[in-house]
């Protein structure tokens, strides 16, 4: 599997099986606490034998929040569009996304926190390692709940932003073990 396919599969996993990716009641930082990182704005592309698509990041005009539109086109000509909204956070020299799904006429739900970096390779994205968060909740390092359904765990962080920041700073390397890159398509 190539890197582009890998990041796409991770993102699709998060979207289609949100229970497999930890979510958080609170973001790492509040929306109005830091300036939005405009380096993430633009279009990022993937293509493989089965599908292609774009991740479009930009700032909503009215709210000022970060908006993500993911448009996937599969080899059968079917299209899937997913929308998320949130903001960026910076802890030291590391950057994170705080994103919520945007279903029509419903509460936005909980945050998905991802690490990102921008480099000559493109946009790098990394999801939290569910097992690290699950262990932290079970050992009462972080407040949250773990719901098991068969072989799948739903992991929900309930701790404060301040506590999450401390945990992420101390555990960044193990918490975000793998980063996948998508090339920039358009600015």
What does it look like?
By secondary structure, the chain is α+β, with helices and mostly antiparallel strands. The chain is 20% helix and 42% strand. Strand 5 and strand 6 form a beta hairpin.
Explain briefly what this protein structure is.
Helix content is 20%, strand content 42%. The chain is of the alpha+beta class and 187 residues long.
What's the structural blueprint in terms of helices and strands?
Layout: H1 3-16, E1 23-24, E2 42-47, E3 51-59, E4 66-74, E5 79-91, E6 94-101, E7 112-119, E8 122-127, H2 130-138, E9 144-149, E10 152-157, H3 161-175, E11 180-182, E12 184-186
Parallel strand pairs: 1-10
Antiparallel strand pairs: 2-3, 2-12, 3-4, 4-5, 5-6, 6-7, 7-8, 8-11, 9-10
Shape: globular
- Quaternary assembly: single chain
Mean pLDDT over all positions: 87
Distance between the terminal alpha carbons, to the nearest Å?
A: 27 Å
How large is the share of residues in beta strands?
A: 35-45%
The radius of gyration over CA amounts to: 16 Å
Q: What's the β-strand tally?
A: 12
Uncertain ranges? 1-10, 12-19
Order of helices and strands: HEEEEEEEEHEEHEE
Defining key terms:
187 residues; alpha+beta; nine-stranded antiparallel β-sheet; three-stranded mixed β-sheet; 3 helices; 20% helix; globular
């Amino acid at each position: 599997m190539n890197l582009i396919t890998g990041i796409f599969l991770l993102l699709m996993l998060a979207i289609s099986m949100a229970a497999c990716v930890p979510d958080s009641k609170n973001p790492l930082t509040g929306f109005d606490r830091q300036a939005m990182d405009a380096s993430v704005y633009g279009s990022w592309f993937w293509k493989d034998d089965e599908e292609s698509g774009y991740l479009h990041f930009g700032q909503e005009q009215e709210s000022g929040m970060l908006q993500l539109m993911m448009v996937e086109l599969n080899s059968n000509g079917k299209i899937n569009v997913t929308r998320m909204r949130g903001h960026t956070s910076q802890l030291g020299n590391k950057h994170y996304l705080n994103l919520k799904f945007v279903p029509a006429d419903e509460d936005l739900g909980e945050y998905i926190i991802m690490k990102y970096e921008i480099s000559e390779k493109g946009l790098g994205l990394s999801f939290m390692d569910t097992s690290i968060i699950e262990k932290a909740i079970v050992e009462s390092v972080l407040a949250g709940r773990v719901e098991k359904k068969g072989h799948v765990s739903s992991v929900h962080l309930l701790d404060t932003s301040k506590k999450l920041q401390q945990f992420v700073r101390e555990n960044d390397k193990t918490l975000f073990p793998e980063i996948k890159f998508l090339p920039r398509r358009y600015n």
